[in-house]
Task: inverse folding
């Protein structure tokens, strides 16, 4: 007995068993991968990425870069990727704003607002996203009029069931001067702010720079525009035949998708915000109020900055979720990556394995990028901790 | 599950000794399974459409039934797998079904590059447009600047691009994943026109809120020979599918119908006798029995009966025979002889 | 700010009249009052018309769309009534639907047993639910043993939604636990494999996974071997969610004090004994709220199978709305409202349960 404890027999050795187990695992995975690859090659399923240079032959309703039927499948990939990124960025933007409002609202001292925000979260979070996308899409299509009876809320803005038509800015070459002037003004405001902060830290006095900031941002650009005789013109949408031409159109699919994605994701962000704020010790709040800060100042200067440390990690995963959920675009014909690449291209070209591999690779890269950026931000705000 | 299916199959194989062991792996598998697996569309009235009870009907469905009748003498022994336009070929290649009978256009790239084998043409179609009447459009050439709804992953999408480009017309395409979504979006006013194969347009018009408010434009902008497809790797199975289709057409040409097929068995006409297996051993050479065509015609009818029942005058679609009339009546339907 | 003076003069108990309550909670400051007015306006604009549309102006009886077109202002409930069989069971043979009902009843009974406080034998029921129930459900639903065979392609509606959700849940939990343990393993190969597996599934959207499972998986299988279409979707859902489950379980594991492992090791328990008897029971209990949240996610995500051609609850409703016999301006929204209500009831009860467990658990912590 004593010997057994002193020297475990070889098959009972933890290290050896660990090694054996790992060896078996690696061998198993390798075998599976090799088998798959061989099988796929034998089936002639994969034949390389050369097809990306073939002509696509179909049109795409929304493309942020020039695209036509004669473009290649590679170009389709790029168009789809940009459309996905567009939805993700817009969705993240609106979801964040809405999420923070609702999250803070849930903790409002106003009973009605608090209940309303809680109800919003409880209702939308417990409904499938796909259902919400269908709902918004058909709500948008059914309630808006046809092109000939377009709503015209502002001059040169038309809303109908083909989309929202906005004037498109078209810059003459001289516009560069206006941009330069604006940049100068921006530099000026930054300098002004730094000065004001310096002063506050030295003397404790608060300097009101709101008006000066506004002037610096607007005036130089305005003056430059006047000198160069207003180089920024607008192409205004005009009803011609069936539809509006000119201007820029926001298609209903995009509107519905962004609405649904941000309304849905906002509920999760709101919960993260609520939990983050609730996690800030109440002493901090009391101290801020005791110092004479208003409730708004207390939130903005004391509570939110501390809550952010708790909010950022769940916020990151919500941004990732939103990006991945944007793939539901395929259900309502928004031309995102999955819809036109993993969908149309896969079918027209017949290269399933390559197409799916590229698509998954792109999403993995997007995920890594987003979490990388958010980790950087997280590291930055975590550093301010003492 | 697989174990049980396998056990059942073994049992079935023991009980029902097939008369002839075919050399087609697909046919062997079908016999082993006890049913034919048929890829159909997700719902296109007249071609393949589930009714409220989940029973499939339509031209494409009847072709599957004809195959089942030829193999099992039971047109019900079919499993229908609804496949979207986008995934139909992958699913066929991967063996999810034995035959794809889903208003699929026979094109060179599909035939040559995708490893498919088209058995023939069951319906000569062409792409057309449907527009609301109130648009006052009489020709597709007037569609400049229009929004056009279509289904993604189809030849339609490509033809549309070709047509508008060659006619110097501008357009916006909105391509949906599913047929029903195309119709719903068009009905909701998302598009000025809906494009698909003309037969499909007649079917889809019936799904609109007010079918009478929409017209189908006269232009046909493409050749769309629709037909059943199988995998290239099993030539004998392709033969069975091909000659079942030809048998339907030949039967109509020879005047053999589901009603008179039994009398026709004693017909002196040698062509009829060969078709119905009274003379020759054509069925056996395919791995079936010689009277395969009798079973097909008795249970499903000839091509003309199938056409009229599903898309022609006996159906809500009321499509004229047109190009799909027999070659003897000015159409394109022509089947090689059984000889 | 102002009421401080009053607070000292009056005892708080008297201030709970409704008017006082309103003033305190809704109109304490002008800003607050403005917020209250806005909130009331939102409620009025959203709730009143929705309620009118869904109930007061709705059509309740009829056998075709004409009944709904005649009034044409509110929801079209006959559409739901007409299709309720399909919405609940898909194309499951009508004569055999009792089998689906029985399965769901068994499931509901088991879950009730587990969630109701004070019931005895919970561990036994849980084990039965995870081991015996799936077998019974499989036989009941697919057939065999004298029951007529109902092929999976006839399943649909709420039944299919529940089948996918429950299978996803039942399979993803054990897989997730294994992955979570793998990720915390001392063996580098196991750890790396687990991390790669988890991060891969978490990095890609479910739609692409379903595409892959549904149309590419067969290409990977040996020629002649084919897996049921539903089975493939189920595997995809389970693998995908096991990665999320793994992270939730890992959270629970991380919350366990190290002393627990050390004490178990000191008692002479091996790795598996330590985890099975000491660590996991506690860690899983801690993770229950998050596990339930993942369940809710799985349940909602089942709707995505409609994209790859299944007629689940949402898919069935979508298909129904494009039926010409029922095409009215309100058909689609009636369908969405109905589907939404079903999904919401399921998800909301799960989330309530998770909140409840959170409270119970934190109460235990405080003790």
Result:
């Amino acid at each position: 007995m004593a010997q057994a404890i002193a020297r475990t027999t070889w098959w009972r050795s933890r290290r050896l068993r660990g090694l054996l187990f790992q060896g078996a695992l690696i061998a198993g995975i390798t075998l599976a991968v090799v088998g798959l690859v061989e099988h796929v090659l034998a089936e002639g399923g994969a034949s390389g990425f050369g097809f990306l240079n073939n002509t696509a032959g179909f049109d795409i309703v929304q493309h942020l870069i020039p695209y036509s039927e004669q473009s290649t499948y590679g170009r389709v990939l790029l168009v789809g990727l940009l459309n996905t990124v567009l939805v993700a960025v817009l969705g993240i933007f609106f979801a964040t704003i809405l999420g923070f409002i609702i999250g803070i609202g849930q903790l409002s001292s106003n009973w009605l607002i608090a209940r309303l925000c809680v109800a919003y979260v409880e209702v939308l979070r417990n409904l499938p996203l796909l259902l919400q996308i269908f709902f918004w899409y058909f709500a948008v299509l059914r309630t808006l009029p046809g092109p000939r009876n377009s709503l015209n809320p502002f001059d040169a803005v038309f809303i109908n069931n083909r989309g929202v038509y906005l004037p498109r800015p078209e810059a003459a070459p001289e516009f560069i001067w206006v941009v330069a002037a604006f940049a100068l003004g921006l530099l000026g405001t930054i300098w002004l702010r730094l000065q004001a902060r310096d002063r506050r830290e030295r003397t404790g006095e608060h300097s009101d720079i709101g008006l000066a900031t506004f002037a610096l941002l607007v005036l130089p650009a305005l003056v430059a525009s006047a000198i160069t005789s207003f180089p920024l013109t607008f192409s205004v949408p005009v009803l011609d035949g069936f539809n509006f031409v000119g201007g820029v159109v926001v298609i209903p699919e995009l509107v519905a998708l962004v609405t649904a994605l941000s309304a849905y994701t906002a509920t999760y962000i709101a919960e993260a915000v609520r939990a983050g704020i609730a996690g800030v010790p109440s002493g901090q709040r009391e101290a801020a109020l005791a110092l004479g800060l208003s409730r708004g100042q207390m939130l903005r200067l004391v509570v939110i900055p501390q809550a952010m440390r708790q909010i950022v990690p769940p916020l990151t995963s919500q941004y990732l979720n939103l990006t991945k959920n944007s793939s539901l675009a395929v259900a309502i014909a928004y031309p995102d990556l999955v819809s036109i690449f993993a969908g149309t291209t896969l079918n027209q070209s017949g290269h399933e394995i390559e197409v799916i591999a590229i698509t998954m690779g792109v999403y993995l890269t997007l995920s890594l990028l987003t979490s990388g950026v958010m980790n950087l931000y997280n590291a930055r705000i975590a550093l301010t901790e003492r | 599950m697989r174990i049980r299916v396998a056990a059942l199959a073994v049992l079935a194989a023991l009980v029902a000794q097939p008369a002839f062991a075919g050399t087609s792996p697909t046919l062997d598998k079908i016999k082993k399974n006890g049913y034919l697996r048929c890829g159909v569309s997700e719902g296109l009235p007249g071609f393949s459409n589930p009714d409220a009870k989940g029973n499939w009907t339509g031209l494409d469905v009847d072709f599957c039934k004809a195959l089942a009748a030829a193999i099992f003498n039971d047109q019900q022994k079919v499993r229908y797998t609804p496949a979207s336009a986008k995934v139909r070929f992958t699913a066929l290649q991967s063996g999810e079904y034995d035959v794809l009978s889903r208003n699929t256009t026979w094109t060179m790239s599909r035939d040559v590059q995708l490893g498919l084998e088209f058995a023939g043409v069951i319906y000569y179609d062409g792409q057309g447009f449907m527009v609301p009447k109130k648009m006052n459009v009489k020709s597709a050439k007037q569609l400049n600047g229009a929004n056009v709804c279509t289904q993604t992953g189809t030849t339609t999408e490509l033809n549309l691009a070709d047509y508008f480009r060659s006619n110097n017309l501008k357009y916006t395409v909105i391509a949906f994943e599913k047929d029903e979504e195309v119709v719903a979006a068009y009905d909701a006013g998302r598009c000025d026109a809906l494009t698909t194969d003309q037969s499909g347009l007649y079917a889809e018009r019936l799904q609109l809120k007010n079918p009478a408010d929409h017209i189908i434009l006269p232009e046909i902008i493409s050749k769309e020979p629709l037909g059943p497809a199988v995998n290239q790797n099993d030539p004998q199975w392709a033969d069975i599918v091909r000659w079942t289709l030809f048998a339907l057409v030949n039967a109509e040409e020879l005047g053999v119908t589901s009603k008179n097929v039994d009398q026709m068995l004693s017909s002196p006409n040698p062509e009829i006798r060969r078709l119905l297996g009274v003379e020759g051993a054509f069925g056996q050479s395919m791995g079936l029995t010689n009277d395969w065509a009798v079973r097909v015609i008795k249970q499903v009818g000839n091509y003309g009966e199938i056409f009229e029942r599903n898309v022609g005058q006996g159906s809500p679609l009321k499509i004229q025979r047109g190009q799909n009339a027999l070659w003897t009546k000015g159409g394109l339907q022509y089947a090689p002889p059984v000889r | 700010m102002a009421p401080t003076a009053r607070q000292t003069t009056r005892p708080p108990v008297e201030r709970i009249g409704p008017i006082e309550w309103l003033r305190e909670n809704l109109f304490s400051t002008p800003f607050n009052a403005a917020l209250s007015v806005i909130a009331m306006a939102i409620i009025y604009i959203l709730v009143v018309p929705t309620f009118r549309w869904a109930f007061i102006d709705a059509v309740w009886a009829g056998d075709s769309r004409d009944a709904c077109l005649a009034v044409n202002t509110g929801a079209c409930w006959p559409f739901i009534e007409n299709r309720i069989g399909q919405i609940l069971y898909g194309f499951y043979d009508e004569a055999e639907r009792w089998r689906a009902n029985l399965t769901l009843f068994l499931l509901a009974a088991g879950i009730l047993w587990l969630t109701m406080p004070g019931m005895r034998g919970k561990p036994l029921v849980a084990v039965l639910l995870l081991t015996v129930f799936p077998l019974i459900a499989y036989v009941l639903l697919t057939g065999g043993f004298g029951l007529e065979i109902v092929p999976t392609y006839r399943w649909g509606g709420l039944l299919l939604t529940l089948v996918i959700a429950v299978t996803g849940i039942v399979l993803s939990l054990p897989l997730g636990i294994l992955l979570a343990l793998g990720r915390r393993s001392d063996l580098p190969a196991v750890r790396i494999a687990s991390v790669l597996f988890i991060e891969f599934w978490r990095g890609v959207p479910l739609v692409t996974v379903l595409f892959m499972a549904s149309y590419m998986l067969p290409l990977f299988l040996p020629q002649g071997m084919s897996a049921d279409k539903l089975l493939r979707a189920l595997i995809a859902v389970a693998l995908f969610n096991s990665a999320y489950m793994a992270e939730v379980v890992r959270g629970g594991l991380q919350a366990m004090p190290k002393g627990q492992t050390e004490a178990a090791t000191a008692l002479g328990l091996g790795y598996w004994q330590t985890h099975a008897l000491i660590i996991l029971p506690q860690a899983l209990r801690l993770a229950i709220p998050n596990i339930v949240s993942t369940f809710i996610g799985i349940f909602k995500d089942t709707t995505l199978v409609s994209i790859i051609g299944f007629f689940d609850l949402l898919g069935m409703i979508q298909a129904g709305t494009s039926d010409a016999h029922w095409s009215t301006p309100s058909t689609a929204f009636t369908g969405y409202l109905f589907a939404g209500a079903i999904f919401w009831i399921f998800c909301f009860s799960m989330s309530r349960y998770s909140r409840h467990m959170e409270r119970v658990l934190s109460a235990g912590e405080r003790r």
User: Anything to note?
Assistant: Chain A has twelve helices and seven strands. The beta strands of chain A are 158-160, 163-166, 168-171, 232-235, 238-240, 243-245, 248-250. Residues 23 and 299 of chain A are 55 Å apart (CA to CA).
